[in-house]
Amino acid sequence: MAYNLLKGKRGIISGALDENSIAWKVAEKAHEEGATFVLTNAPIAMRMGEINKLAEKTGSQIIPADATSVDDLTKLFTESQEILGGKIDFVLHSIGMSLNIRKKLPYTDLNYEFYQKGLDVSALSFHKMLAVAHKLDAINEWGSVVALTYMAAQRTYPFYTDMADIKAMLESIARSFGYHYGTQKKVRINTVSQSPTKTTAGNGIKGFGDFFDYADAIAPLGNASAEDCANYCITLFSDLTKMVTMQNLFHDGGYSTTGVSMEVLNKMGIEG
Ligand SMILES: NC(=O)c1ccc[n+]([C@@H]2O[C@H](COP(=O)([O-])OP(=O)(O)OC[C@H]3O[C@@H](n4cnc5c(N)ncnc54)[C@H](O)[C@@H]3O)[C@@H](O)[C@H]2O)c1
Predict the structure, then answer these.
(1) Ligand 1 site, residue 196, Cβ cutoff 6 A
(2) Does the pTM exceed 0.90?
């Protein structure tokens, strides 16, 4: 059911790679809720061509942009305003990539070139996006920017290796930029800390399937799906959450505040 929560709002949605992507679901929901937006992804990700289906379905245009390139991001924000006919009201940063995870390198023996690449793609890109938007004064007052993150920024998950540190930086950028953008332009910036989700990025993590089941067994409500995450992002883009900024918001079915569940204890043969 749609509520017209984003009626008249203009957005930029990054990171829709295929229909499993969290960003894909956000775009579908934003369209249902009355928004118009531009889709963006790394030029290399366009090769799959899947994003064209989403663009067609949501009546959107696509602007390729490598999120590590300030030039690409400047073009993205400039052209998006031209296409959409005004300043931007919401932005989704849904970008993550770790070569150390891809190559299955242990945290104690990381490749630092990979580490820096991961930092640039997954965290600095958020600062770059915000700095470009700020410089161009491209976001309307009370506009809302959301980046997706994971709880490994607060608690240790051995298999998440360098992305844990990178997500901690991403969340810090939301707070730091949120202060400056908030005081100057009333733009709000938050991170959403999402449950494990079966996407290309998620499935690339060693042992992800087992961990997905474990998290599902701990969370009182079970894991939040990509679609649930999209719904939550829509509320954050809407005016109903106008005073929420500089927060890391857990969207995980209660996982982050549960110590242990009876389901997990029972699986270990412990009777409650
Ligand atoms: N899947 C999970 O379990 C999970 C959990 C919590 C948070 N997240 C976060 O959600 C976000 C989206 O990931 P997803 O799970 O939907 O996976 P996904 O693989 O569908 O999306 C990741 C996107 O990042 C894009 N990307 C990579 N390098 C880029 C670059 N240089 N410039 C622009 N875009 C680039 C990819 O093309 C892809 O579209 C990521 O930040 C991820 O860390 C995912």
Answers:
(1) yes
(2) yes
